[in-house]
Amino acid sequence: xxxxxxxxxxxxxxxxxxxxxxxxxxxxxxHVDHGKSTVIGRLLADTGSLPxxxxxxxxxxxxxxGRPFEYAFLIDALRDERAQNITIDAARVFFxxxxxxxxxxxxxxxxxxxxxxxxxxxxxxxxxxVIDAEEGVRENSRRHGYLLWMLGIKKIVVLVNKMDLxxxxxAAFEAVRREYQAFLDEVGVQVSGFIPVSGxxxxxxxxxxxxxxxxxxPTVLGALDAFEKEAPAVAQPFRMPVQDVYRFTAxxxxxxxxxxxVTSGRLRPGDPVIFYPSGKRSTxxxxxxFNAAPPTAAAAGQSMGFTLEEQIYVQRGEIAARVGEPAxxxxxxxxxxxxxxxxxxxxxxQEFWLKLGTAKVKAEVESITRLIDASQAGAAGPAPxxxxxxxxxxxxxxxxxxxLKRAAAFDLASDFTDTGRFVVVVDHEIGGGGIVxxxxxxxxxxxxxxVFLRNLKWEKxxxxxxxxxxxxxxxxxxxxxxxxxxxxRKHVARALEARLFETGKIxxxxxxxxxxxxxxxxxxGQDRTTTHQEHIRRLAEVAHILLEAGVILIVTAIELAxxxxxxxxxxxxxxxxxxxxxxxxxxxxxxxxLLLPGGDQNEASALQIKxxxxxxxxxxxx
Length: 622
Description:
Blueprint: E1 7-8, E2 23-30, H1 36-46, H2 54-65, H3 79-84, E3 91-96, E4 101-106, H4 114-121, E5 126-132, H5 139-150, E6 155-161, H6 170-187, E7 193-196, H7 220-226, E8 240-247, E9 256-261, E10 266-267, E11 272-276, E12 280-288, E13 298-299, E14 303-308, E15 319-322, E16 329-340, E17 346-347, E18 351-356, E19 359-372, E20 391-392, E21 397-410, E22 421-426, E23 429-440, H8 445-457, H9 465-472, E24 477-483, H10 489-502, E25 507-511, H11 512-516, H12 528-548, E26 552-558, H13 562-571, E27 577-582, E28 594-596, H14 602-615
Parallel strand pairs: 1-3, 2-4, 2-5, 5-6, 6-7, 24-26, 24-27, 25-26, 27-28
Antiparallel strand pairs: 3-4, 8-9, 8-15, 9-14, 10-13, 11-12, 11-15, 12-14, 16-21, 16-23, 17-20, 18-19, 18-22, 19-21, 22-23
Helix pairs in contact: 5-6, 10-14, 12-13
């Protein structure tokens, strides 16, 4: 989610640090005016957590303004918030019980500030959800309950507040509990329990209520203390989304530093690492820190960099993991829970950018499988087979299947929160966000598995790719030349090969037919619809071998489609591929890099491709 500034309030300063203790962040949410801030204000007052004289100061301020005192004013610190009687931003206060220390986040309940509520809740381990006993379950009661689960918060207690306004009647409490429990059961959300309270009167906040002897469960304070602290992130498997790769050349410094922020686990020199989705492997040589001595270890929460024993090409958006630990998921299809915040609806098949960790991938909603229109009671459940929703409106939550234009690495939010969370960008603005529920099979999954196994078993040359590039004055590149029949693909390829060879380049032209009747001879005579992908995979593997040798490889094939290119990009480093379409008419969905007219302009086309290779750094000298 996009960050929103948290207001650290002066009403409850952080207690002195104690190495034996750790803060537990708790978020309190609910529909507007259901009394969230009052509950927290009363909890602070009744447990002596306020600075000396603060309660009297706020009471005096209310008297000067001619307004009745409200416990909510203790944490609604901004003047314009008090004027509107709503919490606009997520405010946090520090609190200490006899058992532990807390950061309590008071999140906004008004529908217009759902994004702010998500910002606050995303930092919490547990939640209190407040419902007005008199007003009952409202739209944001439903929406917030689902959002807490969507954000991975499993420790949730529901407070039925303002019991004093319904005469402390158990029947009123049970009516709210039954209605809300029915909603939770429908959407699959579990909570720890329900507590009847009165924030204004202090009933069941820090001490049991004499007015409600029928409630035999815990108080709010008791429920908070019963929550178990989550295990530290350092105990989880290693994850570091790659932010960038820095290369140094001055003063003989040849380091290539992979940089990012460690979201979980630990890393030390000598650890074997693997990058996803590429599947490339190496071993950590050194850890690096900016303007400081190299650390001996890196742990969750630290921004750092590391060098590798063997230089491999990795790029922003990949996820670094340790070999031998659970791996991230890699696919182009995923099932997700999505909160939509933009005023413009998100439509099925509408293209957008998905930001997942440090990766940014074009994507679209393939289908909507569940839609929660929380503005209507009971409007939750699987989308019907006929007439399934075609769009997601503002403030709705939906379960969707998302298709990515290229494979990305991620985790399920239930396993790793940071690498299982994403945002959706439309027209350069964040339109919504969500979490990954499931990695789905896709057409290229079998190719990726084969490539991962190949990389695991690959016997690497003692000559580094950079060494070959410097010797040959070129960077190994796959030039894919495609287009319709009769457009002159092969003529352009031969002209390009000759032009590059004349300038001393290590270049080779390979027509796909040479692979079909050689490497693929065992596939001849079989059904083309079942062997086409295997033909493309084998072509990509041949290309991979020649690129490892430092060659500029030119391949021609008729009318390659985007699906074909995705298979090739799975087996071959995408940064090494240049895709050229020859012909006036583009007859497939291929996302080409260069469009050339074809015909009798072979030499001119070859020259244009050569210039592109120079511009892209594949050729170091003319």
